[in-house]
């Protein structure tokens, strides 16, 4: 067996080494290398734990309010440090930090799972039962086994209860399902035995701490500068865009990346089931998320509730996480027709499938309303190669034949697998004409604008400017002083000159 990679992860002041082990014909494993505690150390931790429970007063608000979790940790940390110093006067700082961190994880957090939550290389964490090791989905190695096992089914249920309490909910035998968010923003789902036949299970989807940017997607060939320049132009001039794709194809990530192109003085309202979007600091953004009903069945806030309410918040741009139901889709398309700029995702693998899904149940949008969609971007995931690509970019052609409205796809660009490049496919029938009519720009001016935006994107790639706020600053600067940005880019000035 070979060590494929090693790196450090920090959680609650404790730094541990992560080792990825694998090789030909061997299952890849993910090892969290924590110091082995002696019986004396375990006994000491138990004594300190009892003293902390006795001496540290915790209010109901601190138990239930996710916003004060860090204050609660600080309170425990200070008291634990005091107790340890009294018991072991010459304790070294590294050992002390490890013992305190371990106590915090066991008393307030999710034990060793906290190390997994703090590893930016993980996308998913799954506890299947106390009989099986925890599994994780690693960005580079896919699904791998870890060397972490939860000691008992009772402990798994305790972790589920900790997550539930933080959102003011309960998970019990009568209510064995939980969908909630951790204080880190990660999404957690729990199912108790016997609904989950093997034992209690918890699934945690990690919230990206360092989100993808347009630069990343150009570098990893998810899309190219030509397409992003086109989408940038469309977003700048308030065109409506739908992003389609299958599960895990990167729809939301692509949407998140493109929202950096919104001008800074436009009010953005985003509506999601789970908070996934992360936009640059300069944007005027109000994120809204749905809420599930409490155990009594009260207090639910649906996507439709938020969508209808958002229209009263004077939005310039509305982002809908995903269209799932007819009522949501009707309100969204009505918003397009009343002058709001709308962006949403939908499950479909091609532009033709997107049309079919929109006009048939459960969405069932009247075909004539689809004329409000200016661009449809289709994402694709090749699971064999582990890549995501922009598969198609096109428009909907709406026409009336014999009193019957028909909609046909017109693919402007498509991904060519043999060369792994995006190529032109068909000439636009609607998009440039709609853009010209909307903005007053000639086709030559539109092409010049796209070429300029392409230069700026290539400049960011060349200079490795990939942080979400750095990318956001450059786009913001472009809107505030286009000539300054274009001049600096064309003269290949340093990013410091551009960002000053």
On the 0 to 100 scale, the average pLDDT is: 90
CATH class of the largest domain: Alpha Beta
Q: How would you write the strand order of the largest sheet?
A: 1-2-3-6-5-4-9-8-7
| Helix proportion | 25-40%
Distance between the termini: 50 Å
What is the beta-strand fraction? 25-35%
Number of helices: 17
Structural class assignment:
alpha/beta
Shape: globular
Number of strands: 18
CATH H level of the largest domain: which superfamily?
Answer: P-loop containing nucleotide triphosphate hydrolases
Provide an overview of this structure.
Helix 1 (39-55) crosses helix 3, helix 3 packs across helix 4 and helix 8 crosses helix 14. The longest helix is centred in the C-terminal third of the chain and has 20 residues, at 443-462. The protein has helices at 39-55, 60-64, 69-87, 93-107, 113-117, 153-166, 214-219, 225-236, 251-258, 303-310, 326-337, 351-359, 431-439, 443-462, 468-480, 482-490, 495-499; strands at residues 2-11, 14-23, 26-33, 122-127, 135-138, 142-146, 177-181, 187-191, 201-205, 241-245, 267-272, 284-289, 317-320, 341-347, 375-382, 387-401, 404-416, 421-424. The strands form two sheets. The chain has a nine-stranded mixed beta sheet with strand order 1-2-3-6-5-4-9-8-7. It has a nine-stranded mixed beta sheet with strand order 12-11-13-14-10-15-16-17-18, sandwiched between helices. It has two domains: 2-205, Beta-Lactamase (2-Layer Sandwich), CATH 3.30.450.380; 214-499, P-loop containing nucleotide triphosphate hydrolases (Rossmann fold), CATH 3.40.50. The protein is 37% helix and 25% strand. The relative contact order is 0.08. The protein has 17 helices and 18 strands. Strand 13 (317-320), helix 11 and strand 14 form a beta-alpha-beta unit. With 500 residues, the protein is of the alpha/beta class.
């Amino acid at each position: 067996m070979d060590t494929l990679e090693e790196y450090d992860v920090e959680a609650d002041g404790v730094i541990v080494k992560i080792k990825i082990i694998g090789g030909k014909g061997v299952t890849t494993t993910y090892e969290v290398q924590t110091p082995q505690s002696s019986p004396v150390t375990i006994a000491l931790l138990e004594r300190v734990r009892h003293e902390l429970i006795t001496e540290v007063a915790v209010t109901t608000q601190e138990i239930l309010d996710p916003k004060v979790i860090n204050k609660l940790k600080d309170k425990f940390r200070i008291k634990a440090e005091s107790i340890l110093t009294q018991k072991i006067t010459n304790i070294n700082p590294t050992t002390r930090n490890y013992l305190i961190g371990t106590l915090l994880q066991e008393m307030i957090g999710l034990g060793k799972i906290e190390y997994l939550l703090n590893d930016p290389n993980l996308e998913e964490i799954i506890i299947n039962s106390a009989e099986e090791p925890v599994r994780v989905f690693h960005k580079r190695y896919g699904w791998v086994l870890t060397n972490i096992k939860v000691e008992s089914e009772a402990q798994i249920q305790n972790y589920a209860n900790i997550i539930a309490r933080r959102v003011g909910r309960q998970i019990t035998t009568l209510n064995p399902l939980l969908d909630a968010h951790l204080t880190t923003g990660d999404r957690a789902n729990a199912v108790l035995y016997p609904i989950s036949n093997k034992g209690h299970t918890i699934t945690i989807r990690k919230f990206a701490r360092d989100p993808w940017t347009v630069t990343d997607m150009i570098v990893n060939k998810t899309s190219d500068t030509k397409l992003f320049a086109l989408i940038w132009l469309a977003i700048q001039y308030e065109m409506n865009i739908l992003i389609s794709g299958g599960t895990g194809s990167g729809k939301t990530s692509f949407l998140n990346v493109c929202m950096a192109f919104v001008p800074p003085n436009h009010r953005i309202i985003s509506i999601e089931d789970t908070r996934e979007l992360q936009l640059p600091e300069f944007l005027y953004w109000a994120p809204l998320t749905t809420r599930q009903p409490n155990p009594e069945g009260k207090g639910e806030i649906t996507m439709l509730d938020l969508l209808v309410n958002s229209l009263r918040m004077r939005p310039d741009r509305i982002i809908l996480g995903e269209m799932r139901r007819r009522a949501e889709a009707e309100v969204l398309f009505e918003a397009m027709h009343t002058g709001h700029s709308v962006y949403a995702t939908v499950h479909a693998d091609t532009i033709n499938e997107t049309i079919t899904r929109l006009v048939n149940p459960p969405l069932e949008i009247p075909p004539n309303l689809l004329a409000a969609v200016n661009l449809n971007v289709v994402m694709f995931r090749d699971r064999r190669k582990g890549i995501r690509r922009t598969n198609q970019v096109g428009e909907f052609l709406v026409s009336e034949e014999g009193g019957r409205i028909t909609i046909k796809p017109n693919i402007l660009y498509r991904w060519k697998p043999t060369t792994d490049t995006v190529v032109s496919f068909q000439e636009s029938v609607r998009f440039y004409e709609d853009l010209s009519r909307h903005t007053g720009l000639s086709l030559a001016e539109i092409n010049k604008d796209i070429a300029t935006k392409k230069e700026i994107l290539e400049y960011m790639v060349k200079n490795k400017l990939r942080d979400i706020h750095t990318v956001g600053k450059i786009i913001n600067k472009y809107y505030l002083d286009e000539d300054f940005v274009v001049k600096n880019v064309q003269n290949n000035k340093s990013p410091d000159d551009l960002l000053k």
